[in-house]
Design a protein that fits this description.
Order of helices and strands: HHHHEE
Number of strands: 2
Low-confidence stretches: none
Radius of gyration: 13 Å
Length: 95
């Protein structure tokens, strides 16, 4: 039910949240590369090729839930699971 989800994504909202929580827990473990987890867990087209990197973006470019989460992270920190109209996200702030 998330915006722009591809037709092949059929998991429920609870299943999607559980999957994002699993990814977040793994991302917080030492020795886990965020880029590898993006390849395994992300449904976003192109995310794996970018390693999940969104690059720099102005504060107005993201939906408020995502932007607020980014702003509360320190560089190198990994967010809790963030819900937006586009689904569930785990954010690593790199800058």
């Amino acid at each position: 039910g998330s915006r722009r989800a591809t037709a092949g994504i059929t998991r429920s909202k609870d299943e999607a949240r559980a999957r994002a929580t699993e990814a977040m827990k793994k991302a917080r473990k030492k020795g886990q590369r965020f880029e590898d987890l993006v390849s395994l867990y992300s449904d976003e087209p192109g995310a794996a090729a970018r390693g999940g990197d969104l690059g720099k973006f102005p504060s107005s470019a993201m939906v408020p839930e995502f932007q607020t989460a980014v702003e509360h992270l320190k560089v190198g920190e990994i967010s809790e699971v963030v819900e937006t109209p586009f689904g569930f996200h785990v954010i690593l702030r790199t800058q």
